[in-house]
Structure formats: structure tokens, C-alpha cells
């Protein structure tokens, strides 16, 4: 990889500095980021200091944190060597993946850059940024039915749509079907302006947003016109058989038990289905059981079905979102 650790062997065991050499100065500049922004991010989150010395970086700090920070820097440099950019989100992902539950052993390298987990879309490659996301993506490829359960901002729907687009581009499926319960539609729907599509589109907007992140907008429009991409409320799924399709049900906590059973039994030959939801954000009327909870209870252990769970640690939006979720969970636990 062209990187060598240059910690002098003559120093004592409790040495507080690890020296890394990066032979390509152009890549080193990209690694550091504008005004050394990437290094500052690593310093802040890992509790170390990173000093530039020519084409070397000195990582100063306690041994465990120092070794993890060095592993993150090696991984990001390997990413640059592979022709991939390094932005703030990529640094954040590497930092999350570089925090093992136990300290790395002497000389052990943490494998963070994993091209095999990359999702190829028409606009940009997508990579899981946490261990939970990595396991989730692997399960979506390995199982015909997958559940992603956890708080907002953990990438459940985003990654599901990315996997769907990847499989669609590769020809593994012929179409993509995205759905959500339009919980507040009911009687109020008739009072909204426009035709049926205009009435329900506001509920579907997050799915449009995800698609437009992966495919050019004109291509999305064309595929929707050709019915190769469908975005529709859950109620529109009744009576259908979804064959050779990648199917995503988002906000599944707002599906009733009957709706969930109806949706799950739409799965046809050659299809994959993903159910995502957050059990803490149920908007159903009081006394109505969430279909997500029912599916989780009934389908646990069923062959071909995977369950992946996310926590505040997997939030990949603004860091404050993770702290908000943790504070909310702590308050509910104290009641």
C-alpha cells in the first residue's frame, strides 16, 4: 500500500508517538483535507494529536487511541490510492469502523476500506459507514426478506434503496417498487389539492430524494413513466404480485398488522423485499398494533428472513442527531 509505520524500535514500550510515512505527497494533501480539516476531525474524535512532518504524519496520544487513529489514516490513504475521494463523511465512516470493542493488538491493522461492500449507482458509489450498516447491506444481498429497525438517520432506507438501484443496474431485478404507509391520508386526503398522485407524493418525497441521489433525475422520470420504478402508498399494493422486483416498505411501524401481512405476501418469484422502520415513531391510532412489531415477533427465526438493528451510534446525519436520540432514550428509560 506504500505506507510504513516508522515508530523507532529503540523507544520504550509506552512510547506516545507513532510515525506514518506516505510516499505520494499529492495524496497526503488530500488525506489531510483543506486546512487540515480531516486531521482535525480525527484528532477531535479519537483524542489524539496528528502532526505533519514532510511526507510523514506523527500520531501522538495514548497507545490504544494512537493505534486506532493510525489505522484510520492508513485506511483513508488506501482509499485515495484506489482513486476514491475522501470527504468529511468518509472520515466519519472510517472513524466509526475504526473503533473496535477491544483495543487492537500489537501490529494489528483494522481493515476499514472495503471495496467489496461498495454499492455502485449511476451517480456515486455508496459504502456502509458503521458495522451495523455493513451487516445490513450484506444481509440485503444474502436474504430474500430483510428488516432494518432503528432510529431516524441510521441509513436504513437510504442503503436499502442503494442496494435496490445496484441490483437493478446489474440486471438482478427488473424493477424497483418503493412504498410507505400514508398514515394521515385517510379522510384528509380528499381535502388536499390535485389528483391522487399529487395528494400522496408529499408522503413519498423521502423515497424520491433517495432515488435522485443514485440516479440522474431525467432517468428517474423515464423509469417511473415506464413503470420500471414505482413509488406508491402501501394501500396501493393490495391484490398485486411483485415478481422480479426489489421492493422496499419504508416507515413500516405505521403499517397495521393486517397491512403488513398483506404487503409481505406480495413477494413474488425473483424478488427481494426490505422492511424499514422505527419502533419509537408509531403514528397509528391508540390501540392499533404496529405491523412492524407483529412481523418482528412472528418472523424471528424464519429461514430466508434477516433482522438488522440500529442504534444512535449508527446515525450518519449531523452528530447532534445521535445525541438527541440518546437523550430521548435516556429520558424514556428514566420514566
UniProtKB/TrEMBL annotation:
Protein localization: Cytoplasm
Entry keyword set: ATP-binding, Cytoplasm, Nucleotide-binding
Record-linked InterPro entries: P-loop_NTPase (IPR027417), PhoH (IPR003714), PhoH2-like (IPR051451)
Record Gene3D superfamilies: P-loop containing nucleotide triphosphate hydrolases (3.40.50.300)
Domain of life: Bacteria
Keyword Nucleotide-binding on entry: yes
This protein's record includes keyword DNA-binding: no
PANTHER family: PHOH-LIKE PROTEIN, PROTEIN PHOH
Native source species: Fuscovulum blasticum DSM 2131
GO molecular function: ATP binding
Any one cellular-component term (Gene Ontology): cytosol
Domain PhoH-like protein: start-end pairs: 126-328
Family: Belongs to the PhoH family.
Protein name (database record): PhoH-like protein
Amino acid at each position: 500500500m506504500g505506507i510504513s509505520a516508522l515508530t523507532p524500535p529503540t523507544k520504550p514500550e509506552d512510547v506516545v508517538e507513532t510515525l506514518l510515512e506516505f510516499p505520494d505527497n499529492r495524496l497526503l494533501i488530500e488525506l489531510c483535507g483543506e486546512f487540515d480539516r480531516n486531521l482535525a476531525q480525527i484528532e477531535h474524535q479519537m483524542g489524539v494529536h496528528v502532526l505533519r512532518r514532510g511526507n510523514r504524519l506523527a500520531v501522538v496520544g495514548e497507545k490504544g487511541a494512537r493505534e486506532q487513529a493510525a489505522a484510520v489514516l492508513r485506511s483513508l490513504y488506501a482509499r485515495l490510492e484506489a482513486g476514491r475521494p475522501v470527504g468529511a463523511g468518509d472520515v466519519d465512516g472510517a472513524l466509526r469502523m475504526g473503533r473496535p470493542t477491544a483495543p487492537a493488538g500489537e501490529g494489528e491493522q483494522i481493515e476499514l476500506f472495503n471495496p467489496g461492500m461498495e454499492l455502485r449507482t449511476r451517480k456515486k458509489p455508496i459504502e456502509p459507514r458503521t458495522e451495523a450498516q455493513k451487516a445490513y447491506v450484506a444481509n440485503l444481498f444474502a436474504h430474500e426478506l430483510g428488516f432494518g429497525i432503528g432510529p431516524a438517520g441510521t441509513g436504513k432506507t437510504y442503503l436499502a434503496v442503494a442496494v435496490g438501484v445496484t441490483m437493478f443496474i446489474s440486471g438482478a431485478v427488473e424493477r424497483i417498487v418503493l412504498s410507505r404507509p400514508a398514515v394521515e391520508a385517510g379522510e384528509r386526503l380528499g381535502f388536499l389539492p390535485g389528483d391522487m398522485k399529487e395528494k400522496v407524493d408529499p408522503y413519498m418525497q423521502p423515497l424520491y430524494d433517495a432515488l435522485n441521489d443514485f440516479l440522474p433525475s431525467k432517468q428517474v422520470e423515464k423509469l417511473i413513466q415506464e413503470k420500471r420504478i414505482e413509488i406508491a402508498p402501501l394501500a396501493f399494493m393490495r391484490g398485486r404480485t411483485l415478481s422480479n422486483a426489489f421492493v422496499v416498505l419504508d416507515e413500516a411501524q405505521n403499517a397495521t398488522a393486517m397491512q403488513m401481512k398483506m404487503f409481505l405476501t406480495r413477494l413474488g418469484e425473483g424478488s427481494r423485499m426490505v422492511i424499514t422502520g422505527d419502533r419509537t415513531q408509531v403514528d397509528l391510532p391508540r390501540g392499533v398494533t404496529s405491523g412492524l412489531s407483529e412481523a418482528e415477533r412472528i418472523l424471528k427465526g424464519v429461514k430466508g428472513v434477516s433482522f438488522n438493528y440500529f442504534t444512535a451510534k449508527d446515525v450518519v446525519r449531523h452528530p447532534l442527531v445521535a445525541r438527541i436520540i440518546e437523550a430521548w432514550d435516556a429520558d424514556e428509560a428514566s420514566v
